[in-house]
Design a protein that fits this description.
heterodimer, A: mainly alpha, Cytochrome Bc1 Complex, Chain D, domain 2, 3 domains, 50% helix, B: Rieske Iron-sulfur Protein, 5-stranded antiparallel sheet, 4-stranded antiparallel sheet, 5 helices, 13% strand
């Protein structure tokens, strides 16, 4: 009987999977609904049905999208026409869980992924990242621009957020289904992104993480200007 | 080993020999350079500088041997750079304050033997008396040299097709050829999702060819394929801009990462932004009985970067 109750609770709030099931789930849903009405409904509609030219419907967003957008600080967005950007998370952990749970309860969207990247292959992830991600995010995940938008660097993205973003495709990013990038491949990509956070910069400061030549360029520039300055001093002295 | 020994012996002879010559003072009347007053301070400075150079050089060796110091490369560079800088300073001090210098003024020599010079000019002039058709020979010689120069420039023609640009418009695509993914599997039309983008190649074709790779996306009207090579400078179209919420976000576009040429996949690859001068070549598609994508013909225009006559040429196999 107790087990049945827990299953029922889980069905009621698929998003609460990440949290241990407890009696707070139902009240969490109510809290989530209130938070949604206060922070999200203006653009996404009172029941997440979406508002034209304001915000998309959320029935199939699921816990995955909600977790991604809220924990990166992408949402709430001040102006629906501006690009969401990583910023301070406005909600407490409890409020986040309640909101994610409420958005998940709106439809049958995907759950929060938990990438198993620690044993995944970094070389395989490198090749996948090169083929699918590096066009915009650059090969060392330092970000860049695309016409009409900035491309974020991935230094602050947690493994879970990387896995979520691949499926969500936030803003102008394409999204990749489990057919396009399998969960195993996604683990490899996450492993590669993690490896770019602590790159092995042999022999140097790793300007741009592009190998030794950016440092060489900087050194040459500095050395050349010093030499020019010395030459100028000599020329002036000998003229005097 | 014997070579090292030779070096040591010759070095010792050099040092000792020098000491001997400097040991015998020359008489005042034999000197070329006058005696300068001793500069103890400058000499000391040079000694200190040389000592520092030695220290820096030794530091380089020690740092190299240790190999585990943090920021090793920077320290190595610093040691070597400081050594050279100090050596330069020492040289400057020696040159400016220690070496005795004197200026010798000497009049520029008058032109000597004007008669002899005139004679040489006359010899040169008269040596050509055997030539009866001087202008013709001069012309022939000039022609030979000019032709040789042109011959040396001819290989430059291999840098690009000057007269026949048709090979640039070659493409491995032809009617009925299947589209395959990176691992050679055929691509089913229903697997192409609206949110994503795919790279495809001609089945059995040479993938290294410029026209081989195509990018496949699903737009509202259906699945479309374009050459993956930008029409500006030939980079790979690696970016696909896909709005999550089209109401408030820029519309879908294929973007080249090199100079941000932006193409509209829903409108025949039209250029929306950037330096590209012509639309992306589109590959017409059909779906075969198994639901797989096949080419319905060749590209609508030559694939690859643009060149002078590109608008007049057509893609061919």
């Amino acid at each position: 009987m107790k087990r049945l109750a827990i299953i029922l609770l889980l069905l009621a709030a698929p998003a609460a999977q990440a949290a241990p099931p407890n009696a707070g789930v139902v009240t969490g849903l109510a809290q989530g609904k209130a938070l949604f009405a206060a922070n999200c409904a203006r653009c996404h509609g009172p029941r997440g049905e979406g508002i034209r030219d304001q915000g998309p419907k959320l029935d199939d967003a699921g816990a995955l999208s909600a977790d991604f957008y809220l924990r990166t600080g992408y949402m709430p967005l001040d102006d629906p026409h501006s690009q969401p950007w990583r910023s301070r998370v406005l909600f407490s952990e409890r409020e986040l869980r309640a909101l994610v749970g409420y958005v998940a309860s709106l439809g049958h969207g995907p759950p929060i992924p938990s990438p198993q990247w620690r044993r995944a292959s970094v070389p395989a992830g490198f090749e996948l990242f090169r083929d699918h991600c590096a066009g915009c995010h650059q090969i060392v995940a330092e970000g860049g621009i695309v016409t009409g938008a900035r491309v974020p660097a991935l230094g602050e993205a947690t493994p879970r957020q990387v896995a979520e973003a691949v499926r969500v495709g936030p803003y102008l990013m394409p999204s990749f289904s489990t057919k396009a990038i399998t969960p195993a491949q996604l683990n490899d990509i996450v492993a590669y992104v993690q490896s770019t956070k602590h790159p092995d910069d042999r022999g140097g400061w790793g300007i741009g993480h592009l190998g030794p030549w950016p440092e060489g360029m900087v050194t040459w520039l500095l050395a050349a200007s010093v030499l020019v300055a010395i030459c100028l001093v000599f020329a002036r002295r000998s003229r005097a | 080993m014997s070579r090292v020994k030779d070096f040591m012996i010759s070095g010792a002879v050099l040092l000792l020999g020098r000491r001997r010559t400097s040991g015998t003072p020359a008489g005042a009347e034999d000197r070329i350079v006058p005696v300068g007053s001793p500069e103890r301070r400058a000499e000391n400075l040079v000694l200190v500088l040389f000592g520092l150079v030695t220290l820096c050089g030794a530091a380089f060796i020690v740092l190299y041997a240790l190999d585990r110091v943090g920021h090793g490369t920077q320290w190595l560079g610093l040691a070597l750079g400081a050594a050279f800088a100090l050596l330069m300073l020492a040289c400057v001090v020696i040159a400016r304050r220690l070496v005795v210098t004197e200026e010798l003024a000497e009049p520029y020599p008058e032109p000597q033997h004007p008669a002899a010079q005139g004679e040489i000019a006359q010899i040169v002039e008269e040596s050509g008396s055997r030539f009866t058709r001087r202008r013709l020979v001069t012309l022939a010689g000039t022609g030979a040299l000019v032709t040789l120069g042109l011959a040396a420039l001819t290989p430059a023609a291999s840098l690009g097709p000057v007269l026949d640009s048709s090979q640039l418009a070659r493409s491995p695509w032809r009617r009925g050829r299947r589209l395959v993914d990176g691992s050679g599997r055929p691509i089913a039309a229903r697997d192409i999702e609206q949110e994503s983008f795919y790279t495809a190649y001609p089945e059995g074709g040479d993938r290294e060819q410029l026209g081989a790779p195509v990018v496949v996306v699903r737009v509202e009207k259906g699945v479309v394929a374009y050459s993956k090579i930008c029409t500006h400078a030939g980079c790979a179209i690696a970016l696909y801009r896909k709005p999550t919420f089209p109401d408030t976000q820029p519309k879908p576009a294929l973007v080249c990462p090199c100079h941000y040429s932006t193409f509209d996949p829903a409108d025949g690859g039209k250029v929306l932004f950037g330096p590209a001068g012509r639309p992306l070549p589109q590959l017409p598609l059909v779906v075969d009985g198994d639901g797989n994508l096949r080419a319905a013909g060749n590209f609508t225009s030559p694939p690859g970067p643009s060149y002078a006559s590109v608008r007049r040429s057509e893609a061919h196999t």
